[in-house]
Amino acid sequence: PVASLAILPDAERLQVIEGFNATAVDYPAHALVHELFEEQVAKAPDAIAVVYEDDSLTYGELDRRANRLAHHLAKLGIRPDDRVAICVERSIEMVVGLLAILKAGGAYVPLDPAYPADRLAYMLADSAPVAILTHGPARQMLETAIKANANEADGKKPASLPVIDLIADEDLWADQFHTPPDSRANGLTCQNLAYVIYTSGSTGQPKGV
User: Fold this and answer.
1) Using the 8-state DSSP alphabet, how is residue 102 labeled?
2) φ and ψ at 208, to 5 degrees?
3) Per-residue pLDDT reduced to its tens digit, 102-138
4) DSSP code, position 99
5) CB burial string 27-42: b at 16+ within 10 A, e below
6) Per CATH, which fold does 29-186 belong to?
7) Cross-sheet strand order for the sheet of 163-165
8) Is 101 helix (H, G, I), strand (E, B) or coil?
9) pTM, rounded to two decimals
10) Is residue 84 within 8 Å of residue 57, measured between CB atoms?
11) How confident is the model at residue 151 (pLDDT cuts 50, 70, 90)?
12) Res 2: pLDDT
């Protein structure tokens, strides 16, 4: 019987349940992920956006670095729904790479460098990326997977894909524009692919979703 007693009067209960939770807002459903990021850049360019160990970037710095790489990817012919694999250790460069892929109009496919080479090879063959971003120790594991993929690719040549080292090759896009590329000019909309992430494969082959 005690549990059935009302703790709050009806008016206060309505305020707690509905009034305090009236947070509904119109979401920009047609905006692109990187466009929402760019809005934040415009609001607070000097605020810290990403921190990894002793390194950090402000929103403005992150945006400029991602824009330069995005222009480089666009020159490689990245188009909406194209997949770009990214196989890197946790780092500032990982965030730059993910953002640049979206800004170029592509979709990212994260590859964990800790995976066995045969799993990476399967994911490369299945997702059919048009380019690969990597760096550091992850590159050696990735190159092993690329060779395995080439041996199983039935005439395809994954080894001929552009492999871009986010650190060693940075000079290639250092002189690119630091302003965002116009990805919508290539027909990019909110209906296009943003990423492909693979399941664990515990009930069979991993599946890209």
Assistant:
1) H
2) -80, 130
3) 999 999 999 999 998 889 989 999 999 999 999 988 9
4) H
5) eeeeebebbebbeebe
6) Rossmann fold (3.40.50)
7) 107-110, 83-87, 131-134, 163-165
8) helix
9) 0.83
10) no
11) low
12) 87
- With b for 16 or more beta-carbon neighbours within 10 A and e for fewer, the 135-166 pattern comes to beebbebbbebbebbbeebeeeebeebbbbbb
Closest CA to 105 of 166, 31, 181: 181
- The residue count of the chain comes to 209
* Single-letter code of the amino acid located at 157: K
DSSP string, 146-196: HHHHHHTSTT--GGGS-EEETTTTGGGTTTS-SSPP-GGGGT--TTS--B-
- State the Cα–Cα distance between residues 138 and 132, nearest whole angstrom: 12
CA–CA dist 84, 99 (Å, integer): 12
Per-residue tokens: 204: 């069979």
User: What tokens were used for 205?
Assistant: 């082959």
